[in-house]
Amino acid sequence: MLDKDGNPLQGITRSPPAVIPPAPDSDSVLVSLDLGPSGATFSTPITIEMKFDPAILPAGAGAGDLVIAYYDVAAGAWVPLNNIVIDTVNHTISCTTTHFSQFAVIYAPAGMAVPTATGMAKVAFTAFSVTPQYNSSTQPLTSAAVVYMLTNPGQPLSGVDLILKVSLDNQPLADVSLQSAAQLSFGNTSGSLDYIPAAGWQSGTYTFHIEMDLNGTLYITSSEVNLAGPAVASVRLVLVSEIIGAALVVVAGVIGLILIRRHRALKNAGRR
C-alpha cells in the first residue's frame, strides 16, 4: 500500500464527504464515503463494503438496481465498478478496488453512464445490419440475415428483452423476440437471426429496428434499416419462367412417347 507520493501507507481514513457530486440522469446517490488518504494505491486489490438502507430505495426498486461507483475528479463523473457483490440479507454491497477515492452506493436502474474519450457512454447498439439472402439458382429473396451487437460499459443489467420490430410500407408487420436475458453482462453482447415473413416476401419496403426493453419499459432502440421486397413484375417473371419450364418438360415427354410408339409400330410392320 502506497500513498500518492509512493511512500508506504501509514494509515487509512474513512469519513463522510464534504461534497457529494450528483449522479447523472435519473440515478441517485444513496450513501457516500471518502476513503483515504486520497490517491493511495494498492498492488493487490482490496475489498470495500458499504451498507445501504432498503427503506430508502424507490418503490419497485431492487438490490440489483444498485452499484458501487467512485468519483473520478479528472473526468468529473462517477465511474461504476464491475466486480460487485450484493448481500440482500445484510443489505451490504461490496467490490474490490486498487485505489482510494470517494465511493458511493448509487441507485441506477438503467445502468450508469461511464466516461469515455468522447464523453459519457451507456448501453448502446454498436452494430445492426440486415442483409438480403437469395437463392443462388433462381435469385428470389429467401431470407434476411439480421446481425446486432450491444455494448454495456457499466454494471450488468437484469430484466432485458431485445425485440426485432418489422414493418412493411410503414405498417407494423411483426415483433420477433431476439433474446430475453436475466442479465445483460458487462461488455459486448451479440446475436443473429435469419428472418422470413410469415406470409412470405411481398412487394414494398421492409423496415427493421431493434428495441431493448428494461424490466418491461423501452430503454433504447437501434437505427432503422430498410430492405426492398421483390417487385411484383419480378415475382411474376419467376412464376412464368417456372410455368414455361414445366411446360417444356411435359412437351418433351409427350414427344418422346410419340417417337417410342412410332418406332414400335414400324418395327412391328417390318416383321409382317
Descriptive overview:
The protein has one helix and 18 strands. By secondary structure, it is mainly beta. It has a five-stranded antiparallel beta sheet, with no helix packed on it.
Give a topology summary.
Layout: E1 13-15, E2 28-36, E3 41-51, E4 66-72, E5 77-80, E6 85-87, E7 92-99, E8 102-107, E9 114-116, E10 119-121, E11 124-134, E12 141-152, E13 157-168, E14 171-184, E15 187-195, E16 205-214, E17 217-221, E18 225-228, H1 232-271
Antiparallel strand pairs: 1-2, 2-8, 3-7, 4-5, 4-8, 6-7, 9-10, 11-12, 12-15, 13-14, 13-16, 16-17, 16-18
Protein traits:
272 residues, 3 domains, five-stranded antiparallel sheet, mainly beta, Immunoglobulin-like, Chondroitinase Ac, Chain A, domain 3, single chain, 1 helix
Order of helices and strands: EEEEEEEEEEEEEEEEEEH
Query: Widest sheet: strand order?
Result: 1-2-8-4-5
**CATH architectural designation of the largest domain:** Sandwich
**Ends distance:** 117 Å
Rounded mean pLDDT score: 81
Fraction of residues in β-strands: over 45%
What is the CATH superfamily of the largest domain?
Immunoglobulins
**What is the number of helices?**
1
Give the low-pLDDT segments: 233-240
Query: What helical percentage do the residues reach?
Result: 10-25%
Q: Please identify the oligomeric state.
A: single chain
Could you tell me the number of beta strands? 18
How many domains? The number is 3
Radius of gyration: 32 Å
Under CATH at level 1, the class of the largest domain stands as Mainly Beta
How would you describe the shape?
Answer: elongated
What structural category do the secondary elements indicate? mainly beta
Q: Which sheet architecture does the biggest sheet show? A: 5 strands, antiparallel
The CATH topology assignment of the largest domain is Immunoglobulin-like
